[in-house]
Amino acid sequence: MWEYTDKVQQHFLQPQNVGEIKNPSGTGDVGSLSCGDALKLTLKIENNVITDAKFKTFGCASAIASSSILTEMVRGLRVDEAAKITNEDIAAALGGLPKEKMHCSVMGREALEAAIADYRGVPLPAVEGEVVCECFGVTDVEIKRAVTESHLRSVEDITNFTKAGGGCEKCLGRLQEILNETLNEVEPIPVVPMPKKRMTALQKIKKIEEVLESEVRPGLKKDGGDIELVDVDGDTVIVSLSGTSDSSGATIRELVELKLREKVLNTLFVEEEK
């Protein structure tokens, strides 16, 4: 079970500055819905000072909390000061993030970099490199940056910070090579592959989203209801149900649980958001 700090819970349950600035000075769009996380950050900048920041995000509790705290962090800063914010700063402002969720803080930093580049009218440095992870489109340049800046020391760390290796796992060997090269290690650290039938946390979340979207939501909408995935905490799937009566809520939750156990993992439990 992931342990979230009070700050993460606060910014997830009561996110700040949600929305989009009209005619923004700079916009940063990162991630993609197909990869499970996406963030749009808009900034209003006057006299080179960030006077307002808003966000729209698609993702888990950590993604929402990271985006929310980021908008609070940058307000009032000069652009050159904001440009120095790292993903580690974002995580620290939240009192820490579970290691499996550090990629959410990285997404926040990337959105900020993109918004500042947009304001300055310059393109982001072209990421010219080898696409190592086809599932999430992560290049060796991005991986080397993460290893260097966040002091990563294992392939698991790389996956937590960049998502690389969190899909089909075909790139795990190449990730190890890049890690060794970046750390200038002479002796390679052997890769211990996961059992073939075991899903990574990212694979599990993505599969749950697919099942809810294609097999659960259509049926609920026919009866005027809906379902939203709130979070996945270990084997506990937290959802929000709307348009259902109290008497039918438990039944729907049970049906959703049966469907997820059938299609994703037979150890999953479904809970409604409180």
- Kindly provide the name of the CATH class of the largest domain: Alpha Beta
Number of strands: 8
| Helical amount | 40-55%
Main β-sheet, spatial strand arrangement: 1-2-3
**Helix count from the secondary structure assignment:** 10
Helix/strand/pairing class, anyone?
alpha+beta
Approximately what portion of the residues adopt beta-strand conformation? 15-25%
Total count of domains = 3
Unreliable residue stretches? none
The backbone outline, from C-alpha atoms, is globular
Radius of gyration: 20 Å
> What's the average pLDDT?
85
* CATH third-level topology of the largest domain: Sufe protein. Chain: A
How does CATH name the architecture of the largest domain?
Alpha-Beta Complex
Secondary-structure element order, N to C: HEEEHHHHEEHHHHEEHE
What distance lies between the first and last C-alpha atoms, to the nearest angstrom?
A: 17 Å
Question: How can the largest sheet be summarized?
Answer: 3 strands, antiparallel
Characterize the structure shown.
By secondary structure, the chain is of the alpha+beta class. The protein has three domains: about 5-120, Sufe protein. Chain: A, CATH 3.90.1010; about 130-185, Arc Repressor Mutant, subunit A (Orthogonal Bundle), CATH 1.10.10.1100; about 200-270, 2-Layer Sandwich (GMP Synthetase, Chain A, domain 3). About 45% of the residues lie in helices and about 20% in strands. It has ten helices and eight strands. It has helices at about 5-15, 60-75, 80, 85-95, 100-120, 140-150, 155-160, 170-185, 200-220, 245-265; strands at about 25-30, 35-45, 50-60, 130-135, 140, 225-235, 235-240, 270. A three-stranded antiparallel beta sheet has the order 1-2-3. It has a three-stranded mixed beta sheet with strand order 6-7-8, covered by helices on one side. Strand 6 (about 225-235) and strand 7 (about 235-240) form a beta hairpin. The radius of gyration is 20 Å and the shape is globular.
